[in-house]
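[Q] Does anyone have a clean structure-token version of this?
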Amino acid sequence: MYNPSTIGSVASTSASRLYVYEVEGLGQGGQANSRIAPLRRSGTVFMTVPYSRMQQEAKRIMQLGGKIVSIRPAGDAVSVSANAQSNGNAASQATSQQFTKKPMTSAQATEKKKVPVNIYKPKAPYLGTCLSNDELVAEGGIGTVKHLKFDLSEGDLHYLEGQSIGIIPDGSDENGKPHKIRLYSIASTQHGDDVDDKTVSLCVRQLEYKDPESGETVKGVCSTFLCNLEPGKKVQITGPVGKEMLLADDPEANIVMMGTGTGIAPFRAYLWRMFKDRERAANPDYQFNGKAWLIFGIPTTANILYKEELEAMQAKYPDNFEITYAISREQKNLEGGRMYIQHRVAEHAAKLWQMVQDEKTYVYICGLKGMEDGIDEAMAAESAKAGVEWSEYRRALKKAHRWNVETY
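[A] Here you go.
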């Protein structure tokens, strides 16, 4: 069932979505609405109000002859709003000014941690040593994908899950100028693969394609540089950048991840933070107990990146982690064609639609841009059954930082 009130409020905990109104003038038993629970009844009444109902309840209190003396977050001993105006419009305006300027989103919560951006810029990049360069595609798979780890111990480069770094490949272009920066999603948690805050990792596919005119094989400049990089070599690194894909802070959240190929990079960072033993030990304030669901599109089973570790985490946390593969060259969709990620989304559209109506659900999409239309088409068909226009609903989800996309 469509519940518009669940879109805009994205606070990370239930306590942060409740506010206490201190109200005078309602009298004994005075109550503006059954959804407001009085905490004390005397000359002054204290009422808890859901964030999504704040403006409506402020008007209702005024209509009943009450006066709002203060407003504070539930559980907070300090009042954040006092001497509210005595008419409904003014109270509503005051409430809006106090709370709509700082929407409670996961990104907002993360920004309090001082999201690092552009610590190292193109003119003064960090020189990081390549520590390892490992093949991720199993025998019989298509193409080459490498997991690279770089040393950060000689600088101040730090980052959060969901951010990216820039790589400046060695050499120069056909005009004799330095190669341009290529951005890559970080594939490690903020503590690094060794959980010592001294490394950063990338998941890089060797870009290779046929020139449509000459028919010659063309290889990507930066991806070739990285995939052929030998341990011990120095690399020019910039960043970090990006706030779009930051992981929600709420350990009780539902995290839905849809990705193709190396689009799994940020999801690896999320999942390692959620489920790896050493990460959980390093993050006592973030013990994930929500639901994580990875819908992953790849061409063959041999191309399932980080397969063993993913499936080991799923086996250890079966109630918290689900994996759904879309293996295009091995599985068939309902029409008999190749199975792509949008077909899996269509199969599970009812479940996904139900989930996104829960304000604790955050969706992250990363990988090939071509999957977006198919995902939207599947979600639109399902939301239409409830009489909801998907494009508008998705827009509200994006505004609430609950529908996050990074495609290329």
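[Q] Thanks! Anything notable?
[A] Confidence is low (pLDDT under 50) at residues 1-16, 27-42, 76-112.
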